[in-house]
Design a protein that fits this description.
2 copies of one chain form a homodimer. By secondary structure, chain A is α/β, with parallel strands linked by helices. Helices cover about 40% and strands about 20% of the residues of chain A.
Chain lengths: ~220, ~220
Amino acid sequence: MRVAVEEKVLNENQRLAQELRQRFQEHNVFCLNLISSPGSGKTALLERTLEAMPKDTKVAVLTGDIQTENDARRLARAGFPVKQITTGGTCHLDAKMITRALENWSLDDIGILFIENVGNLVCPSSYDLGEHAKVVLLSVAEGEDKPLKYPGIFVKSELCVINKIDLLPYVPFDLAAARENACKVNPAIELVEVSCTVRQGLDDWLDWVYRREQKAVGALTR
Amino acid sequence: MRVAVEEKVLNENQRLAQELRQRFQEHNVFCLNLISSPGSGKTALLERTLEAMPKDTKVAVLTGDIQTENDARRLARAGFPVKQITTGGTCHLDAKMITRALENWSLDDIGILFIENVGNLVCPSSYDLGEHAKVVLLSVAEGEDKPLKYPGIFVKSELCVINKIDLLPYVPFDLAAARENACKVNPAIELVEVSCTVRQGLDDWLDWVYRREQKAVGALTR
């Protein structure tokens, strides 16, 4: 019975996600869904990303957390539209939350929409948000075995951002093994290595974003 | 309807957890449930813990993961009974999984049972496993804001292990703020600071384990 209800919930989510996808397409919105463990650096990556974008870029962020509006406050400093989704206990964002959060925004004013999911390497991967692609972040402090232990999200992601590479000298993290493990569960996955604190590799990330946007909507919003 | 089914699942879990709790009491088993994000160092802490225990200690470990038996292999090196629970996709351990995993073990041969939950700072906190206490781990690489963003598990834990303190010089982590945030959501929580890689603070952790065991079963199994 539980499985049946879960299926019903996921089917309903899929329907709403499909609606979102169609709206994104109609309004030329390119949407990425960022997923990782708590503390892998999703917010820091978005801070660096927004800082790097020209002030007239039509970029917006929805950021999910169980509690607090801290991330929205951090991200709003860059001057682009940011909205916090506080789930109040739910371990993932779903398509209904995204639909509601977008209610007061005009999609014509958005070229790139980043969704920062709740920090959780498991549950968010089951909920389609209408995004063009999922991006999984992995901090080098977490260990190179994570793609093997949590394959679901690595299978569903187009890009894996290996973050906090400035910590490599201080943690037992095998970068080659991490890449190998990610490719083992998803041979098509692309990888970039970044550090948000020492600002390394961010061009690789931004290049990927703009290339993927080009592929998705066929027009640069820059 | 979904809420009703979730409640039913949780009620059934509660019943099984209560059975486990009673069996632990009858057989003088002290049980701890370790919860954290993926890669916070639960397995490393247990490795150091098992190494530090005299060879005749009646200690055993159940370790949960979505995929792989890596952690059981790592932990088995210490020579104590270890069993992997592979959930195959489920984002938490539940009381039924623990009951099944214990089927072939005699509880009279176990004095201390460590349960290493699936790496997830959200969902595992809702599932009672019959443990005497929950312990939450937080790595300094994750940021000092985590108790505020994921209050559920910090409210339910008796101890917070702040791990990877050897990384403090290299990460923007405010130790005082972390302690303050943990105490804000749970004024009764105790805290220890450890590094499993440079073997720092482990005595504080072991002291807490033995003190808590003493309180739980009134007898040292050492």
